[in-house]
Amino acid sequence: MTYEEAVFYVIAAVTVAGGLGVVTARNVVHSALFLILALMGVAGVFVLLASEFLAIVQVLVYGGAVTILILFAMMLTRVRDIDGPIDGPQRPIAVLAAAVFLGTTVLAVKETAWRGNTEEATVVDINQIGDALFTTWAMPFEIASLVLMVALVGAIVLARGEEGE
Amino acid sequence: MDLVLLALIVIPLAVCPLFMLIPSQYPQLSRYLAALAGTALLVLSALVFIVYEFDGGSGLRFELQWDWLENIGFLGENGITFYLGVDGVGAPLVLLNGIVIFAAVFVSWNITHRTKDFFILLFLLVSGVYGVFISQDLFFFFFWYEVAVLPMYLLIAVWGASSEFPTFSRPKEYGAMKLTMMLVGGSVLIFIAIFALFVEAGAGTFDMTVLREQSLDEDFQKWVYPLFMVGFGVLAGMWPLHTWSPDGHVAAPTGVSMLHAGVLMKLGAFGILRVGMTLLPEGAEFWAPVLMALGVTGAVYGSVSALAQTDLKYMVGYSSVSHMGFVLMGLASMTQIGVNGAVLQMFAHGAMTALMFTNVGALYDQAHIRDMTQFGGIAKRMPRHSAFFAIAGLSSLGLPGLAGFVAEFHIFVGVFRAGYWWAGGLGILSAAITATYVLRMLARAYFGPLNDKWDGLKEMRLGEQFAGAVLIAMILFMGLWPAPFIDRISETVEMIPGITG
Amino acid sequence: MGMEQAWLIPAIPAAAFAILLIFGPYLPRRGDWLAIAAIGASFVLVFPVLADLLDRADGTTYVAGEKAWEWISFDLGSVGETFEIEIGFYVDPITIVMLAVVTLVALMVQVYSIAYMKGDSRYGWYFTVMSLFAASMLTLVLANNLLLLYAGWEAVGFCSFLLIGFWWEKRSAAEAAKKAFITTRVGDVGLLIGIIMLWHEGPNTFNIQEIIHFAEGGGYGDTYLTAAVLFLFMGALGKSGQFPLHVWLPDAMEGPTPVSALIHAATMVVAGVYLVARMLPLFEVADPIALNVVLIVGLITVMLSATMGLAATDIKRVIAYSTLNSLGLMFVALGSSAVAAAMLYLFVHGFFKALLFLGAGSVIHATEEQDMNRLGGLAAKMPITAATFAIGTLAMIGLVPLSGFWAKDEVLVFAEEEQHVIVYLVLLSSLAITGLYMARLFVRTFLFAPREQATYDHAHEGGALITVPLLILGLLAAVGGFVVFDEVGEALGFPGGFAQFVFLHEAHQFDFQLDTAITSTVLAGGGAVVGWVLWQGKAELAARIRDAFSPISTLLANRYYVDEVYQFAIDRVVLVLGGIIAWFDRVVINDRGVNGSAYIAYFTGLEARLLQTGRIPNYALAIVVGILILAIVMLVTQV
Amino acid sequence: MSASLQWELLAPEYLLAGWAAFVILIELFWGGLGKERLGWLAALGAAGAGGLSLIWVDDAKQFGELADINDYTTLFRVLFCGIGATVCIISARYVSDRLLHPSEYYALILLAVIGANGMAAAHELLTAYISLELLSFSLYALTAYAKFDLRSNEAGLKYMLLGAFSSAIFLYGIGLIYGTTGSTQYAVIGDVLSGDTSDIEWGVYLGLAMMIGGLGFKVAAVPFHMYTPDAYEGAPIPITALISALSKAAGFAFFLKLFAGAFLPLIDDWRYFIAGLAVATMALGNLVAIQQRNMKRLLAYSSIGQVGYLLLGIAALSHDAASALVLHLIGYAVTNLAAFTCVILYYNWTGKEEIGEYKGLAERAPYLALCLTIALFSLAGMPLFAGFATKFILFQAAADQDLLWLAGVAAFFSFVSLYYYLIVIREMYLGEPEEKTRFPTPWLEYTALAVLIAGVFLVGLYPKPVLEAVEGSTATIFVGGELESGEDLVGAP
Amino acid sequence: MIPIDNFLVLSAILFSLGMYGVLARRNAVLILMSVELMLQAVVINFVAFAVYLDPEAFTGIIFAVFVIVIAAAEAGLALAIILRLFRNRQISNVDEANLMKW
Q1: Strands B163-164 and B80-86
Q2: If you write DSSP's letter for every residue of B91-114 in order, what string do you get?
């Protein structure tokens, strides 16, 4: 087992641990923190996948924006004071479903003969990514900007308090 | 002259918007318009019937074929065409429809609630009926078939009447809903059968004149024909799918009952003949015994149930079931005589049952009950009304000289000729039972000492008398001189594959 | 004007009917004159037709005349035949006999009716229907094919329905009319089946002569033919009121008396006899069973009606029973294939039975009373009626030399010669009984002290319109029988005499056997005398006998309970069955079947909508499950 | 690899986007402009975009390797823009009475239309996915737009969370397909799949299943439909109309193009699953609809039923079936918009949306009742109206592909559907209104309604022109590009 | 060198965890977080495929970028809606939000 693999397993362990924490923690804030952990783990995975650019994006967008957003939301909705169990009655079925899904997926992953070099990750030059993003993928890029605008407008319209509130 | 058939469909459709333009505070106006349209239709229908004469081939006349949808996907050259044409079987029924709508307009003269809406729906119904009788394209055949069902719900539910009985009650919504759902349910089977037929024929067209040329695989015919048989059978009041008919007729307003029992039920039998037997002769041959059995059951069953009714309208409703049973018997005989009889019976029953409903309606409008046991001796107060009812009844029990006899006689002869002794015997017996309930009704309600409660009854309205007179004229015409009908019918029937002599 | 124009005979009354129906109310005297003129014309027309027939007679056989119009006709493509129904008329001696009786009696009756129906609110309607009846009856008689015959058959039934129910305000009249129509209708089921059977295996035509020819050529299978003719005979049963379908005839007396005279004595009820007579060759070709059935039915009817006649007290009913009696006799004759005898009896019976009814009518007209227990002694007040009635009675009883005697005698001769002795004895005994009740009728009505003074005082002889028809008919009833003598027949211009005339087949002489004649006369006369003795004066004797045999007398008074049986069958069986089926239709087929299937959909929806819990996790679960199922099934099936 | 991009091909989308911004700004700077006029303004923009897209009729261009601008796109652009415009018009009154921030509302509608256009135009999964998200996001926001209406919030939440969840699943599926075929181009995927797939079938099938799930969610196919009734009921009614028309149409445009372009080679593997979905969808939609008491909810379930019929077209995927599907889609969109217009108008007057509260409508607003009746009958597949013709052609197409049984099931359930439509009609015509007063006559809405009904009649009585247009457009989406009608298809039975 | 399967399995695990979270959790925010987790898994998938199988076109990486963007926007919009719901009804548990059912 090469040292990359060792590193991979460590990072993977961290990520999975984080994910597990997110969905099992009894305390919402804890699971938020676990989420950060998982996200960081994923960033590490990106590094292993030789796409540092994504790792950076990941850290900035997620570790920065999203988690903060989520924490804010928690604060505002005072989820701490919410009484009652944190998991729904559906939990056992959920376990089952997730397990079955996992089994199927893993089986599929194993059974599929991926066409190409499955052993060696190729480094993709970040400049190419930049080019592609603004040339080949211009249309999605523009639409994505609209998506952001929609999210923005929608969020503002919905979240902002009105007179008499 | 070529456009006459088109006119038959277009006129009733065209008056609908005209009705809408009439302000609803002038109901009289819409009545006049309705009368106008009805008369026009009667004249045109009569024209079609008179001018029609068989000229070889499939006997189609006044043909008119317009492209509608072709060369698209599965549709080949003239895939779906707006194809009108009337043959010897269609012509009498067109005439019948003209007469009944004409009569129905005058009977409906006293509709005061939402008059124009009523007439709109009524004429929509009529256009559908005409369409079925004269469409030669399977798609449009089915199209108009559904159009004829479309307005029924509102016609019955809005202008109908609920009825209460000691042991049960039949709200008008129920009757209307049951009728609509059963008819549309039947058309589901037709739907499927048409799809299958189209694919199997592989001619890429719905033109029935083309489809009847395709020789279809026998096994295929055997499993598809029952779909048509049952699907159309529902509308033909085929036992045991008849229950919509009595309840529906009872709930419906008089004019609608007339059209419905008089013409609409014929669409079913017509469909079995025009689509089922014509396109799938071998299938028809294979299932003829079943159809015969169902027809006989309906005939006897209907007449016996009618015997047990005290409600006049229910009695008439069940008598319709019984008479449509005769029609099915005639068709199932697959002999020329029997099928002629079936078509004649369609006409005869159409006229006389319309007459019966006219009478029942006229009586109900005054008395507000239909229980024959509560009447008695009202012939004293309503002589014409009683005479009309008696004539209708006598025609239905097959008195020679009236339409019913000619038709039923042909049917029985045909059935015997096809070798169904038991069926023929039972059929004739059920005709005798018919006599029993008709006379029982006359004796109960019309003869005997006048029940003082009905001292105030007046003769039925002139409009109704007029309508009744027209219908009686038809009954007598066909009863005394059936040749014009038979000449037209038989040559066409002769052309239908699978029909033996 | 020959046989080819015979169609005019029914056509004229038919035209009269049409006119009366439409313009009747606006005609002077409601158009009774028109009706009478029409029937009179028909009566007159009979003679040229007869003459024509006689002219065409070569030696001893007659050439029948025929005339037909096509009514329905179309090719049966695949078999190359043609399905044809004609409106055709056929004249032969039997027809002529019927025509004569019908037109003459009808004429008499209608004249009589002018007085009898005077002042009735539906006077005009009466004559309208009468014309229709005449037209249909004559059509029936002249029809050359079974279908036209059936048409006339139904039409006369319908007329009798209208006329029995003429006073429909009376519940009893309405019911009687209904009963008559339905009962005969039951028979007609058989008739129609028989007709269709004859057509089906036959020469693809309804023409009577062709069918007979075909049958005589052995065209039909033996059993098949037997079945067919027996079905035909069912029709005859209904119309001619033979057992077991006789129940309607006595009730039919609810109608006006002239109607009873015309329809329920002289004409319509003998249509059955006429039919069988026409079709007799078929019966002869068919298995002997057929004729025996006819014979036995006739016998039963004879005995039943005769005995029931003893118990009835309504004079019209008594006469009705006597009619049944006579009809039975005719069927016995036919049963022994004695057409001539049957037709002769039919011929004279028309006269004396009409006479009896009209007489009774005159009594009723005079007294408004038809229960013989309240009458009596009328002879003094109404001599003509009494005299003619006496003639009628004696003719019915069958005493020399009145017409009844000769006819009945012929039947007896046949019975003796060709049938089992029992038949003969039964007939003889029935004669005695006939004598009894006819005597009773006459005695109780016309002789001795009146039982109700009021009615008696009120009684008076009717006007000429009533008496003249009585006299004419009385004359005919008296002398009508002499046609049996071939000399008379020839004198009247029938080559070979009446029998020859009627009996187209091998020449058959009326033979007159003294012994038979004497026996019958003695029995009948004796019966009459006994009747006289029993019911003279206050009729204590009769009363005592009645009490002595009370069970029998009640049985007779209740007409052997046949009506009760039928009533029971209708109320407890037919109507109940109808009720059951109606219930089945509503509850089982509709509520279970139709509504049931609707409810299935309804409740499925009701349950299915509960899946929609409104909780996001459940929704998510649904999605996941959906995908897992898709994925797993896909992988399992496709990999 | 980067083709020179012809931006002008996207002119309609730019117009829409710009117009959206314009609408927002104009409200800022010219408050005097009434709320209703904003709606008409937005409608104008949408209509303009629709007109603009007509430039490319009978044209076959490509935008990079991302999108086609051909008849298929044009057809749907016109359809979507039309839907958008209609919704804007019928929203005007409702919005001005009941909602805050009208300009953003209209802007979001226009942006949604862009997303829909993208879904129809894209021939590449990334673009399609982004467009789909654009559409979805706008709809999420709009569903929750009635800020103080609890049901609206709840609907928004459900729609949003489940949407995110399903799009995650969809993405995972895309990932697998991408991994196995090495591309997101429909054509490439199609080529790979028409080759030997035995080595990668595990990944392919799993990915396929998950993509079907994601698309199923978009078009509301059982069992992925769960959010639909709640979203329909909670959302502001015009938005309900928008979801039922726009997002379904766009979903099917995408579904059809993807499966025709990429997955057709495997049709024998997936057709029966789609057929199964279709049956489940028809059954559940129509049966549960019988139980509904709320008009919006009823229409929601009825639209689920309609999805069932539409899936027939996918299951029987062939050129004919595709055309039939699109035809039915058009007919359905028009009819449904008509129905919703009536519902909105009634709600504007009375604020009522329970079926029971429609009683006596025929007395108070005959024209409205008539139009609603026509629309409902058309949805039930009654003749004279669009429903009959389109259903007939669609089912016949399915029967042509040996799916007679499926066509039969569909026919049966469209018969069941008649029942609950009749219930509504009964209320309108038989019920006695509380008060007799006639309703006012809103000319603009009535005109829009008249146009829609006219469309219903046109498709019902003479579908030929429409169908021919559809035929031409659907010919372009199949593997191997242009197809003559009826010609045999790769992998088709 | 790390075989691709490792990453794929990792992503599968993450995805399943997220799926479990969505199904099991009651709180809207937690569900949202679970969705984010699933999206992370998706991203890993894309990137892995891109760098291993499709390094020339590397569509996967582009896809990943967009997914991340979308995910962020999603979070924003979703949280806004959650807040709105909380303001109006003081609830953030999804199973309490069932005004509309059946």
Answers
A1: unpaired
A2: HHHHHHHHHHHHHHHHHGGG--TT
Residues of E in contact with C609 (CB under 8 A): 102
SS3 category, A125: coil
Q: Which residues of A61-80 are buried (b: 16+ CB within 10 A; e: fewer)?
A: bbeeebbebbbebbebbebe
Give dist(CA A146, CA D113) in Å, integer.
12
Rounded-to-integer distance, Cα B337 and Cα C83, Å: 8
Q: For residue E66, give the nearest of A91, A105, A144 by CB distance.
A: A144
Residue D279 has pLDDT above 80, yes or no: yes
Q: Do C634 and D273 touch (CB under 8 A)?
A: yes
| pLDDT digits 0-9 by tens, D351-400 | 888 998 998 888 888 899 999 999 999 999 998 899 999 999 999 999 98
State how far Cα A36 lies from the chain centre.
9
- Which residue from C612, C613, C620 is facing E23, i.e. has the nearest CB? C620
Q: Are residues B68 and D411, on separate chains, in Cβ contact within 8 Å?
A: no
Beta strand C65-76 pairing with B163-164: unpaired
Assign C517 to helix, strand or coil. Answer: helix
In this model, does residue C419 exceed pLDDT 80?
A: no
Q: Do residue E89 and residue D153 have CB atoms under 8 angstroms apart?
A: yes
DSSP string computed for C438-459: HHHHHHHHHSSS-S-HHHHHH-
One-letter amino acid at E62 equals: I
Dmax (CA) of chain C: 119
The verdict on a CB contact (< 8 Å) between A97 and C617 is no
Q: How far is A101 from chain C (nearest CA, A)?
A: 7
What gap in Å lies between CA E86 and CA A76, rounded to an integer? 9
- Whether residue E61 contacts residue A54, with contact meaning beta carbons closer than 8 Å, is answered with yes
Instruction: State which amino acid sits at residue D378.
Output: S
Separation of CA C616 from chain center: 85
> What is the per-residue pLDDT across A45-101, written as a single tens digit (0 to 9) for each?
999 888 888 898 888 888 778 888 888 888 887 766 666 788 888 899 999 999 999
Q: E68 and chain D: CB distance < 8 Å anywhere?
A: no
pLDDT value at position C510?
A: 60
E interface test, pick of A36, A56, A77 with most E CB neighbours within 10 Å: A77
Name every chain A residue with its beta carbon within 8 A of the beta carbon of C617. Answer: 88, 90, 94
Cα–Cα dist D297/D227, whole Å: 11
C-alpha dihedral (C389, C394, C395, C401), degrees to nearest 10: -130
- The mean pLDDT value for D475-485 works out to 62
Amino acid at site C333? A
Chains B and A touch (3+ CB pairs under 8 A): no
Closest CA to C332 of C287, C301, C305, C288: C301
Q: Provide the β-strand partners of residue E4.
A: none
Report phi then psi at B447, rounded to 5.
Answer: -105, -175
Closest CA to D387 of D338, D328, D336, D339: D328
Question: Can you tell me the distance from the alpha carbon of B98 to that of B84, in angstroms, rounded to the nearest whole number?
Answer: 17
Q: CA C605, CA D21: separation in Å to the nearest integer?
A: 46
Instruction: Compute the distance between CA of residue D61 and CA of residue B101 in angstroms, rounded to an integer.
Output: 59
Q: Looking at chain D, which subunits does it touch, using at least 3 CB pairs closer than 8 Å as the criterion?
A: A, B, C, E
Structure tokens at B418: 């096809």
Report CB contact under 8 Å: C617, E102: no
Strand partners, C84: C73
Cα dihedral B448→B452→B454→B456 (10° resolution)? 130
How many residues are given for chain E?
Answer: 102
| Residues paired with C86 in a beta bridge | C70
Alpha-carbon gap, residue B483 to B490, rounded angstroms: 10
- Please tell me which chains touch B, using 3 or more CB pairs under 8 Å as the contact test: C, D
d(CA C388, CA C360): 11
